[in-house]
């Protein structure tokens, strides 16, 4: 997994920034905004205490039906009447943060036109027997072949020995030995070791914390072409210089990392291209393609935003079916915001056929996770008891994939 100095946004912040449906808020995030007029119709005093969400949390059974339910008549709404998943009411991100546009989920993994990755350069060097043994899972053989070379100052062998010690592959895990060999290889100019040792210096893990040296090693590893270092150094620049200036300074490193397939960088690039002023029209036009590439890598936040962008027509034309599929992909993966938005898509038959039981299932999962939504609460109050029971059963059987 990619080690990151910073996240693009903390999970809590990410969820708070992504939600802008009327009345939707996370528990502990403050009071919800005023409910939409149609959602407020028929509301009764004490609704918060007697809500369906409250009974979900308490595990109690159904009560007398009340509230309003969206009719499942299957009628297609005109494009101008479709509810938008994101809006200008979304609070602005903190300075320097890259906020998602808010979102849903699954993309059509087949047939999506994305920018091509650069062609790999043919390998013309001498095969490394130690690395060959490592790749085949012969870790003790790899250690026996690499250690003598490492002791003679071979930087690549030193990095391999460090990896074996760090992960306990064929030998007892020993992070102090790993730190020693990473440092030796970093001093000898191996970019992978420079990146790994920079992380250890930042965290003070098995070595004294040294932010200045860590930044220098991370920058040098990034300039030498290490994709993970490029992303992490970009994050460092954004953290040290919040706002547009830091984002533009980091942009070249995000671009290089994204081109090498780092999903976090692809997501960051999409957000910068779409939201930062001064970006050329040519680059802005590729924002959605970079977001879809990150989504296709399994990055759930990118899948969530891909659903929103496609449904709302951000960065290109609307595609309700693809937007629905990306939303469902993120929801199946366990993204709570996507589960909430997917329920709304099922209720309003956006990109799919209306399905009250599926809508109820995803509403229950997001409510149980602590995502308060009076609109979904009201919807559940209006479902017949048999459909509530089916939704409860489906939710109880759900496991993130």
TrEMBL record:
Q: Which InterPro entries match?
A: Sel1-like (IPR006597), Sel1_AlgK (IPR050767), TPR-like_helical_dom_sf (IPR011990)
Q: Which organism is it from?
A: Xaviernesmea rhizosphaerae
Q: Where is this region: Disordered?
A: 28-71, 83-102
What's the name of the protein?
Enhanced entry protein
Please list the residue ranges that the record marks as compositionally biased, kind Low complexity. 28-46
The domain of life is Bacteria
Task: Name a Pfam family for this protein.
Answer: Sel1
